[in-house]
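CHAIN AND CONFORMATION:
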Amino acid sequence: MGTEPLSLDPSVSQALAGVSTATITTVLLKKGLRNVWLRGTRPLAPGQPRLVGRAFTLRFVPAREDLATPASWGAPISTRAAIEAMPAGCIAVAGALGVTHAGIFGDILCARMKKRGVAGLVTDGVIRDLAGVLGTGLPVWCQGTAAPASVVGLTFVGWQEAIDCGGVAVFPNDVIVVDADGAVLIPAALVNDVVAASIEQERLEGWIMSRVEEGVPLPGLYPPNDENTARYQAWVQANPAPR
């Protein structure tokens, strides 16, 4: 149901894999986008890798007792059915309204996602079966854990449609980057521009850091004034980026 999933150009994945979410938020801020960091998306386990992928969205609404039942898990519109529609390499993004007393996924669902090649799960809610989920090896970003099942607090209503996750509007096939600082969204239409600007921003900040380590004071360096901009451009010419 909803929007057809799209694959992500491997060159985009490779480029963004070397760019922090902090840098991406800075680049998007310069483009006028402030609300792109999905609040409440914290790594479930330390050392999770930075991931890049298209968003495969899942939408929950508040629980309604006639709909949010254990029987709903076998319905055509269910989290189980949604998982079978997830393409390899996607990042599942679940809008769970920030609910923290009902876990949207447990170990069996996460194991199936891992088996299908899903890159990771991002949600502003929580998961259940912590030990089992960790055992699946599926990287998860969420607000923590809770023992009760999703239907205690949420009703699942669909996938691959626009959602609210962590206070951010996420559309199917937007690009998600996640690392130790959480998840950031790149609108699909801006991906190529953001990739180019992010690589340049990382390179500039690397040069600035090298100057800081040399003892250069911050005023005029970060952000660089005209004099330091000229120094940076001269350094770039002398040290061309590898192709």
Summary: Helices lie at 10-16, 21-30, 79-84, 107-115, 130-136, 191-213, 226-238. Residues 191-213 form the longest helix (23 residues).
